[in-house]
Amino acid sequence: MRTLASAGIIRPIRPDRLVRTGIALARWGPTPAAGSCASAIRYGDEIGLIDEQGTLTFEEMHQRSNALAREWRRAGMREGDRVAILCRNHRGFIDATIACSKLGADALYLNTQFAAPQITDVCAREKPPAIVFDEEFAELVADAGRDRLRFVGWFEGHTKPEDPLLEDLIASGDPSDFQPPGERGRVVILTSGTTGTPKGANRKQPASLDPAAALLDRIPLRAREKTMIAAPLFHSWGFAHWMLGMSLSSTVVLRRRFDPEGALKAAAMHEATALIVVPVMLQRILKLGEEVIGRYDLRALRVIAASGSVLPGELAVRVMEAFGDVLYNLYGSTEVAWATIATPGDLRAAPGTAGRPPHGTVVRLYDEQARPVANGETGRIFVGNEMQFEGYTGGGCKDQIDGLMSSGDVGHFDDRGRLFIDGRDDEMIVSGGENVFPREVEDLLADHDGVEECAVIGVDDERFGQRLKAFVVPREGQRVSEEDLKTLVKANLAGYKVPREIVFLDELPRNATGKVVKRELAEREGSSPG
């Protein structure tokens, strides 16, 4: 309660609005619909969303989703249906998500970097009767959209598409208050698919405000401030911050596509106090250089929150040198939600750390025999909290021990209780009888002044069984050789951790959330990952 009061979620309001807010929360529960209703009651005339089409007040957002939910019902959609959403960061994504919640339908988020066959496969498996997509993706959904209701979330051409626009449905729909469904809809977020076919992860809504309080206790976001969400909304990190923003009645700033200078410009223009990113976005922002970054007044920025992929210690330090001690790093996964949060103090004291578990989260490390490992030793990471998922939509779940769920990674704790990620549990290779995790070598290489970023995989080796192979993107304006980097590894790590080969690339293959897709590196080089 102290945390929620400090964040401004609990604050004095007019008695009539307090009663109406309480009734709305009781009727809708902790859902996107509840956040929309509560914000409209408390701050109806204030701006809740800013995107490239302009601004929307909280009352307008509430009425738009009411109208859309009614039009969808008229089109034949019902409680318990599933709506696939293939949209970038804009109001159409928000309208569709809140309308799903009010209708009692599940929102299935599709990755905007999916190819047409992936979209078709996911829709065939998840069977949504409707799909919402930006007009730019019309060709990609041509096959998946057959025999489904189709709606266009964003259109900027000259000739209107044949499929109905969300904006037209909203304009013609009844905006009056909507009755809550008998059963609340869920959010289905797909896994990243870096190691295989993306899976749908069923996520229930939280039973209380405890998860929000846990995050706000470590990341100092405050009510009625402005948050720019640059991370994709279809990903759990971007979506979580939009939901948190709804709880805080924050003004959310969105841009459909990430552009490093555009993000700084928007954050400065709207005096955003928080910027939500994935780590690769920070790399691209820093590449702008001091002169470009210095053009924008970011004194209001108190929080840069990063998650979704590895945040190298070297990158964390450079970000704080550029923007001050405002960087927070959350470690988690689609399945376990969050596990740990690193504050600026953690990142200064131990660059590369994933931080400590927030309140209400348990993190333990186990060996392959499900035995707890000693402090300082590497083990499989298992997590427990109120937000972990309920299983894959196609069946199955992650490994569990003592009621805790596997994050899919291995790591160790230092003597201060800070977690460090050593790698994926399926990336471990055995080289000459020794266990090796690529992450340790990646972190060391990333510290070199001539390295912008790198990735390491395991490849077959006749002598050692397996060896490491590194892929390196050189830093602009710096010179570095294969021998330089091998010498660095030899000087700091055991000999069997020295990469057999180092390949220089212009960029690493990534998915839409910034994760390096190592499978593509292995396929490109004709090698097999460890």
Number of strands: 24
Give the low-confidence spans. Answer: 526-530
Question: How would the global form be characterised?
Answer: globular
Tally of separate domains: 3
Give the CA-CA distance, first to last residue.
Answer: 47 Å
Find the CATH superfamily of the largest domain.
Answer: ANL, N-terminal domain
Strand order of the largest sheet: 2-1-10-9-11-12-13-14
* Percent in strands: 15-25%
CATH class annotation of the largest domain: Alpha Beta
Based on CA atoms alone, the radius of gyration comes out at 23 Å
Which percent range fits the helix content? 25-40%
Using the 3D structure, state the CATH architecture of the largest domain: 3-Layer(aba) Sandwich
Secondary structure category: alpha/beta
CATH third-level topology of the largest domain: Rossmann fold
Q: Counting H and I runs of at least 4 residues, what is the number of helices? A: 17
Q: Mind summarizing the main beta sheet? A: 8 strands, mixed
Mean pLDDT: 89
